[in-house]
């Protein structure tokens, strides 16, 4: 079973959903034309399908191996990564002035999806490097940029995020790693960091760790954190690599999934670090990196969902079992003919395409917000990021699980491959901020803080789409009906949240994840609905018909969940907060 | 983290939900008193917690091993199984006349839950043996009963079900294994069976395979299947073991979960088999066994859910992270204080207790139906079996996944143990008939066949519970409101299903799984509501308060899903059936 990158749908999303007209009118992207984007993505698709996808099952079986302080990657990863560097793919979305290709974020999202669908374990390394690049671009000094950006954008060096410690996971205020300034201006970093993705590996000649630590006089809690560059090998003034830094990998984790992605425990023993920006602003900087990573993790969710869908679809076409329930055929048929298998496949497809559409739209908003002073776009972009992360990752677990189910007993056998997606997907709603953390971000920072202004703008834009659907054909009108009902559920929940944010904050946060799921489901359904409108005209009839059919299925099978979430929020907070947990 | 068998809740379910008055009035159970049941379950609980639970992680890590045609079980399993036999636990629910203890099915369900919560891989062996015993009791000849029942009920021999072949999974009509009668009346069985749970192991001195096969002149399809006893070792007339039969284990599967439960490929090469009952009636007999096994697999779902809940609860009490959102405490608190962690824990608890309550009720119905001529009880029991299997197993996957989520990053590390439940649970909605098969059974055989009569009786009984809740306190009334809304959704969906069963059978079956999930959620909510009524009086205040709180949470957080399922059924069939899957 090979991976077939969905380039047509990715291009459809870029063209119709990523605010392409506005994005491509930005000066920074003035040379970026759709046909070029298509050519780049086709080329990347070939690379992912041919070079990377075959590594996924091998990597899962072998896993990254740890021995005597060194991590050895599974067979083929080193060669494939060298090719990734050779072809310059790490540079795709980064600024031309630092050696990047300068493509918009929506193109980057398409690339992230394909690479992670091909092999999520492999895809994590470039994903983390992207985050490190983004953080350095926005907060690094000119000297730091000159030293580190080039090799990172080339992919010759990789980047990591060092946040978590045994006692500090979601609660970064508890970070205890120490940073003591030395006479030469550098800092001695001492402490233990855990869950460091690609914290040690043999793919690149250097690893640039971005590390949250605390200076001796820093205030307690999250406001006393500073961010440091800690290269695995120190970099000489001429850019060559010098001595090894005092950072050691003491073990890697034995994980449920993404087993070819080494998750390291790193010990810093007076390692040399370089402060980024100002002391005590580390968390703010880390959030820049984290926001980029959160968006990308949402896209990983789409990636796993797509791969699981393709595998299940191929099996459902191939596997012959049982006659149709309507009795019209007397022989067993491929199981794709059975209504419930269709239901599962369509659920997988609509959730996958919904997530992709929403991610493309968000990528466009992020680009516009980044390159133009526009508080409305910026607020909408920030509003969308926790939705992409929270919704697409939770749904990836569901989609991967459906993929196992479609395979029946074969799905439970590891060699089939469906189970790997189910295992790999499970980390997605956890890392880069759990779903609850995303929900708190959405509710606290993106909804309550501006009194619901952005949320109401979001709803108003959806209403505009509904109005367009209302003058369409029967399918369009049915999509519009589902969307309007879901939006009404959202607005009811929103009013209640805003009211309770003043009167009963616990009750509000008791519904934070249901609110995230409601809003995410609505955002994905809205994105699919916009796609359905765009698909009313065009060339490829089968593709356009499918886009509309998928949006309709989503409107009738997924959007009704919004009313359930609304019910939970409005009626369920007291029973949630009052219940006791006796021994 | 040790397993604490929930004996108090199990006994509560037996006393208040398993129709205990009627069951214990049956002649066969006339000597069975609740205090005795309590003593038996306490004893079994100790065995499960102390002897079995410690094996679970070891077994998962080592797995069953296959070498040169032999299966070796993980460390400790052989000794623990010997103790299981020594204590006579296999006999718990079987007839006294064959050496059984003769306890009712509800007690058996409690025992199955505890054993499988302790170690599902271990629990599968006795579960399959129970099924073989049940089939022999109902369909075996006197001689077959005399030969096989004693050692099976002792647990000295184990039983298996041999249905699946590479081309015949859900579609048993495609079974191709041959059975050719010999001059001595026995049959020569030849063919390959796959996915045979405990098809080979070193726990017992013999294995009794029940095998579906086809005689030379049998009609094609499911009506040409016969059922055979194929002992691994032939049994001499005096009951001693003779020559090895021509059944060979050629491999075992490398699975996502339940790794200590060997899943065998068995080759029958003119093996000696003995016909059970009549030729061509094999599927009917197998369904007897399968119905018992399906119910038990539903209980396995409750078991995994309970274990996952206990593990998550312990972690949530222990792990300190972040201040409360309401700002009333300035220090980090155990995460159980955070609303969303409470939400996840209560979701886990209410789904687990709901499944347990529903299983206890169904067990009682099955006993009454089995031992008394009462078509109404029989029909209700049959109606409930696919709900217990379908709903409890799908929810087990969800609950296990929430258990991982509560652990955050630690949940993804295999040593933590939460991931094992997520892996183990995944087989439950697949084996003994996938969720779609259960849904077809519910809709086709249990609803449409009697024109909805049983389904309406089910709804009417729920309405009676609602009436009692209406005169209760605020919690009771709120539970009643949730139940009434869910029942209304059920009746709307039922009307639509009955109408479409005549006019558009494809549309009806397009909603079969949503209908199963709706009905299952309602049945579990109803069972919890009956429990809440029972909990209004009694001794242990903390326990009774928890029962009511759990039922209320379920009514407000889970039952609203019924309306969503109803929407999918009524509005979603066309978009499901019309969608194309272009290449």
From TrEMBL, chains A, B:
What does the record give as EC number? 1.3.99.41
Location of the Acyl-CoA oxidase/dehydrogenase middle domain: 161-270
Q: Where is the Acyl-CoA dehydrogenase/oxidase N-terminal domain?
A: 39-155
Tell me which InterPro entries the record gives: Acyl-CoA_dh-like_C_dom, Acyl-CoA_Oxase/DH_mid-dom, Acyl-CoA_Oxase/DH_mid-dom_sf, AcylCo_DH-like_C, AcylCo_DH/oxidase_C, AcylCoA_DH/ox_N, AcylCoA_DH/ox_N_sf, AcylCoA_DH/oxidase_NM_dom_sf
Every copy of the Acetyl-CoA dehydrogenase-like C-terminal domain together lies at 458-579
- Catalytic activity, reaction form: 3-(methylsulfanyl)propanoyl-CoA + oxidized [electron-transfer flavoprotein] + H(+) = 3-(methylsulfanyl)acryloyl-CoA + reduced [electron-transfer flavoprotein]
Q: Does the keyword Flavoprotein apply?
A: yes
Swiss-Prot/TrEMBL cofactor(s): FAD
Indicate the enzyme's highest-level EC class.
oxidoreductase
Q: Which UniProt keywords apply?
A: FAD, Flavoprotein, Oxidoreductase
Pinpoint the Acyl-CoA dehydrogenase/oxidase C-terminal domain residues: 280-442
Pfam families, per database record? Acyl-CoA_dh_1, Acyl-CoA_dh_C, Acyl-CoA_dh_M, Acyl-CoA_dh_N
GO molecular function per UniProt: flavin adenine dinucleotide binding; oxidoreductase activity, acting on the CH-CH group of donors
Transmembrane regions listed in the UniProt entry? none
Q: Family membership, please give it.
A: Belongs to the acyl-CoA dehydrogenase family.
The record's function comment reads:
Involved in the assimilation of dimethylsulphoniopropionate (DMSP), an important compound in the fixation of carbon in marine phytoplankton, by mediating the conversion of 3-(methylthio)propanoyl-CoA (MMPA-CoA) to 3-(methylthio)acryloyl-CoA (MTA-CoA).
Recorded protein name is 3-methylmercaptopropionyl-CoA dehydrogenase
Q: Which organism is it from?
A: Sagittula marina
């Amino acid at each position: 079973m090979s991976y077939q990158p969905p380039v047509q749908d990715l291009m459809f999303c870029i063209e119709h959903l990523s605010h392409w007209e506005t994005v491509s009118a930005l000066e920074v992207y003035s040379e970026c034309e759709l046909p070029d984007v298509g050519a780049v993505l086709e080329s990347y698709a070939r690379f992912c399908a041919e070079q990377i996808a075959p590594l996924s099952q091998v990597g899962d079986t072998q896993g990254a191996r740890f021995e005597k302080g060194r991590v050895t990657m599974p067979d083929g990863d080193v060669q494939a990564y060298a090719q990734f560097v050779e072809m310059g793919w790490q540079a795709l979305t980064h600024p031309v002035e630092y050696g990047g290709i300068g493509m918009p974020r929506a193109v980057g999202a398409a690339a992230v999806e394909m690479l992670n669908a091909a092999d999520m374990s492999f895809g994590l390394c470039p994903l983390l490097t992207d985050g490190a690049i983004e953080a350095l671009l926005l907060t690094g000094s000119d000297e730091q940029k000159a030293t580190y950006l080039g090799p990172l954008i080339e992919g010759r060096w990789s980047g990591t995020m060092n946040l978590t410690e045994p006692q500090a996971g979601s609660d970064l205020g508890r970070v205890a790693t120490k940073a003591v300034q030395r006479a030469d201006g550098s800092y001695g970093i001492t402490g233990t960091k855990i869950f460091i993705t690609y914290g040690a590996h043999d793919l690149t000649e250097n690893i640039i760790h971005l590390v949250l630590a605390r200076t001796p006089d820093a205030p307690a809690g999250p406001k006393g954190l500073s961010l440091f560059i800690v290269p695995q090998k120190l970099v000489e003034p001429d850019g060559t690599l010098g001595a090894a830094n005092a950072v050691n990998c003491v073990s890697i984790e034995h994980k449920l999934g993404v087993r070819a992605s080494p998750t390291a425990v790193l010990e810093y023993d007076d390692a040399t670090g370089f402060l980024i920006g100002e002391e005590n602003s580390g968390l703010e900087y880390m959030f820049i990196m984290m926001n980029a990573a959160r968006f990308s993790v949402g896209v990983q969710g789409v990636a796993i969902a797509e791969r699981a869908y393709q595998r299940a679809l191929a099996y459902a076409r191939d596997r012959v079992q049982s006659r149709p329930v309507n009795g019209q055929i007397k022989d067993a048929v491929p199981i794709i003919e059975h209504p419930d298998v269709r239901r599962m496949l369509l659920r997988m497809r609509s959730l996958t395409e919904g997530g992709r559409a929403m991610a493309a739209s968000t990528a466009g908003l992020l680009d516009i917000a980044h390159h133009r002073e526009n508080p409305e776009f910026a607020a909408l972009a920030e509003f969308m990021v926790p939705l992409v992360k929270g919704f697409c990752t939770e749904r990836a677990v569901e989609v991967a699980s459906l993929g196992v189910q479609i395979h029946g007993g074969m799905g439970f056998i590891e060699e089939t491959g469906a189970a790997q997606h189910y295992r790999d997907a499970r980390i997605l709603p956890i890392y880069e901020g759990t779903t609850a953390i995303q929900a708190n971000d959405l509710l606290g920072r993106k909804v309550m803080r501006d009194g619901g202004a952005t949320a109401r703008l979001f709803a108003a834009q959806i209403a505009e789409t509904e109005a367009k659907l209302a003058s369409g054909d029967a399918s369009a009108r049915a999509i519009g009906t589902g969307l309007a009902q879901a939006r009404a559920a959202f607005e009811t929940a929103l009013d209640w949240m805003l009211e309770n944010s003043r009167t009963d904050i616990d009750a509000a946060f008791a519904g934070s994840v249901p609110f995230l799921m409601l809003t995410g489901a609505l955002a994905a359904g809205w994105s699919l609905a916009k796609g359905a409108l765009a698909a009313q005209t065009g060339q490829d009839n089968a593709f356009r018909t499918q886009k509309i059919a998928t949006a309709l299925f989503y409107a009738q099978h997924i959007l009704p969940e919004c009313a359930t979430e609304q019910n939970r929020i409005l009626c369920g907070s007291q029973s949630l907060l009052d219940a006791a947990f006796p021994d």
